[in-house]
From TrEMBL:
Designated name of the protein: Protein-lysine N-trimethyltransferase SMYD5
Molecular function GO labels: histone H3K36 trimethyltransferase activity; histone H4K20 trimethyltransferase activity; zinc ion binding
Organism, as annotated: Dissostichus mawsoni
Lineage per the UniProt record: Eukaryota, Metazoa, Chordata, Craniata, Vertebrata
EC number: 2.1.1.359, 2.1.1.372
Record domain SET: where: 20-332
Annotated Gene Ontology cellular component terms: cytoplasm
Predominant location category: cytoplasm
Keywords: Cytoplasm, Metal-binding, Methyltransferase, S-adenosyl-L-methionine, Transferase, Zinc, Zinc-finger
InterPro entries attached to this UniProt entry: SET_dom (IPR001214), SET_dom_sf (IPR046341), SMYD5_SET (IPR044422)
Pfam families in alphabetical order: SET (PF00856)
Amino acid sequence: MAAPLDDMFSFCVDPGKVSACVDVRFIDNIKGKGLFAKQSIKKGDAIFLERPLVSAQFLWNSQYKYRACEYCLRALESAEENARRLSGIPGLSLPHPELCRVRPERHQACPQCQVMYCSSECRQAAADQYHRALCLGPSKEDPDHPINKLKDAWRSMHYPPETASIMLIARMVAIVKQAKDKAQWQKLFSHFCSRTGNEEEEIAHKLLGEKFRGQLALLHSFFKGALYDDYLSRWFTPEGFRSLFALVGTNGQGIGTSSLSQWVHACDAIQLPAQQKEQLDSFIDQMYKDIEKGNHSCIPNAEASFPDNNFLLQLSALSDVNPGEEICISYLDCCQRDRSRHSRHKTLRENYLFVCSCPKCISQMGELDMTSEEEEEEEGEAEGEMEGDEMEDEMTDV
């Protein structure tokens, strides 16, 4: 059974720390680097398990009261609390509460600002890596604190569904500030910067959306006021800030964590008499009706998952992979991958600024440049709504 995940956000793995069964190679100036198999990989095999260079909870996700470890993003609310929040049913009770893996007795808060961690290990790791530079202390709830003003500015420009977080860039700055070897971390982040100025600007505008494309300068002003550091002065120029935006926009990976999801999988595994198992399955199905929520090669041979319910990313093979073969995930969801070549290319150009040349796209080169029937219908309906309401002169962000 699937379970809804609360989305977080992370920024890419260290290219120097991938598994022994793969290596990173430079492909060309358009695609940049790629991941290639060094040996045969079987379908279902874990290719690597890696933590991100930097991660942060989406700001609206946090605003909506999803409680997660500030460092590893592990869920802090119990499966029952998770279900109650998502369903809006305060009295909802889950059977088999012993299957919930959340351990509140291990949770710890920062002594200064009270942000929460799932363990003392995570609290110490955050303090050592970045939190000392970002800790707000008693000013955590002060709306006039420069970091809170930066967060508010981001939320006012980047509504759900969220695709990035300004706090990823803030943590990059904090990591360098606290690092003993600042140059090494700067160099590590620079591995992922390979866009032209025009491409970076387009990505930044895409993250903000059309309605706020003129407000990048305002966001830059808040960012500089909150975090400026002489050593990183180049990052605080308009061009440097735009480059960081593009870096996050093209290298980020969403993270899904959920104590409820883990509880569901644990329920699937327990041995119960047939009638009790049927009753439990029926309960779970009904619960998901109450809390249902909408959640690159076009033929990927790998997919990312988060088996430990935190920021540790596992890349697993969807099919057998031969030595020398490039390992690809898909930037498109299942429905998007089933659309026409033209529709897929349109989505990829708009969101990632590249044209896909995977085997599927090459084999469909002879197709007319037309969108899928479903997409044409959607676009037609949207146009009809706009024509029917001429007084509405701009799209509404949802």
